[in-house]
Amino acid sequence: MKLQNPKRTSRLWTGRSSRRRFLAAMAAAGGAMTSGAFAQEATPNMEASMPEPLVLRTGLTLGESPRWHENRLWFSDIGAQEVDAVDLAGKHEVIARVPTIPSGLGFLPDGCLVIVSVRDGRLLRREPNGSLATHADLSGLSDQLWSDLVVEGRGNAYVGNMGFDFPAGAAFAPGIIALVTSDGASRQVADGLAFANGLVVTADNSTLIVAESYANRLTAFDIGSDGGLSNRRAWADLGEGVPDGICLDAEGAIWYGDPGANRCVRVREGGEVLQTIELDRGCFACVLGGTDRQTLFLMANELPDLANPGGDAARTGQILTVAVPVPGAGWP
Predict the structure, then answer these.
(1) Which domain holds residue 127?
(2) Quick check: is 148 in a domain?
(3) How far, in whole angstroms, is CA 270 from its chain's centroid?
(4) Is 43 within the bounds of a domain?
(5) pLDDT tens digits, residue range 84-135?
(6) What is the pLDDT of residue 141?
(7) Structural domain includes residue 103
(8) Distance set, CA 72 to CA 89, 90, 112, 237, 264 (Å)
(9) Is residue 36 assigned to a domain?
(10) Please, which residues have CB within 8 angstroms of residue 15's CB and are 6 or more apart in sequence?
(11) In total, how many domains does the chain have?
(12) In which order are the strands placed within the sheet that holds 207-212?
């Protein structure tokens, strides 16, 4: 499959009414985030020029949680209720069909795929025969929606909880982070998160960083020997940036997708912007992969109908690739 430049259009959203609903849901959260933060135009702030993104795949409902594993990009297609994989030639495979909504993905030390089931609070495990089993039941920790996860080098999985029913437009409430050990035991390790979204862990398994979408910041924790989290601190205040999925590179910088501003941004600790990649649609998640981890994969989508992301008119999702000079590091 030949990669192509994404087509530029002036229609950045699936429709004015969808955009208004989305911005209204964000504004209703209160706190630091406002509809203006999501409606802003992306402004270039680049230390070095970046190549144009290339299109690897189209036709997604809403791609999330990209992971590079065994020479393929694995990701959740939320509206299709699938976990899929695609290689750099564009060859695609449906890996699993999930009964509810899939989101965060990771791989256990034995290679088994784990999948966050958003609405029923289960962490699913894909068995060698392709069936799905419950690896951990998180419903006892929260009855609200679950989002992304990261599995670090020792097999511990950290799972973010939204704290409220965001797609339904419910009032904002803080969420938690749960730890699931490799044997499936789970416990809460952090609370008070303003929409816990993307997560990364440093290569030495010592630090977890989470995107707090409703606080416009990246927040760091120290990871203890038992997997517990401590020493909570702001890693980067992002101003009007609204972080969704994130990934870490070998210089210690983080790329974050900003869906409302149609961009993916690279920042260092403290919040200095290093590079910005502007798109014609929202960037919901990113990961560094490829054979040398120097391909940045972007999950780009026009704004979906959050109540029905799998609708017939909703397949505006793309997977884009950009070659970058600094390789990925840490987990995922």
Answers:
(1) 16-323
(2) yes
(3) 21
(4) yes
(5) 999 999 999 999 999 999 999 999 999 999 999 999 999 999 999 999 999 9
(6) 98
(7) yes
(8) 10, 10, 15, 33, 21
(9) yes
(10) none
(11) 1
(12) 196-201, 207-212, 217-223, 229-237
Among all chains, which residue has been given the structure tokens 């940036």? 241
Using CA atoms, how far apart are residues 71 and 84, in angstroms rounded to an integer?
Answer: 13
- The owner of tokens 């609370």 is 191
Tell me, what CATH number does 230's domain have? 2.120.10.30
**Both structure tokens of 35:** 């509809």
Under 8 Å between Cβ of 279 and 53? yes
- 163, two tokens: 């704290």
Q: Which of 134, 136, 157, 331 is nearest to 227 (CA)?
A: 157
Residues belonging to the chain: 332
CB 176 within 8 A of CB 162: no
Spatial CA neighbour of 278 closest among 296, 261, 295, 256 = 261
SS3 22: helix
CA distance 31 to 8: 34
The structure tokens listed for 287 are 């990961």
Q: Which amino acid is at 14?
A: T
What Cα–Cα distance (Å) separates residue 303 from each residue in 9, 17, 235, 283, 314? 14, 11, 28, 10, 9
Instruction: Supply the pTM of this predicted model.
Output: 0.86
Phi, psi (rounded to 5 degrees) for 287: -155, 150
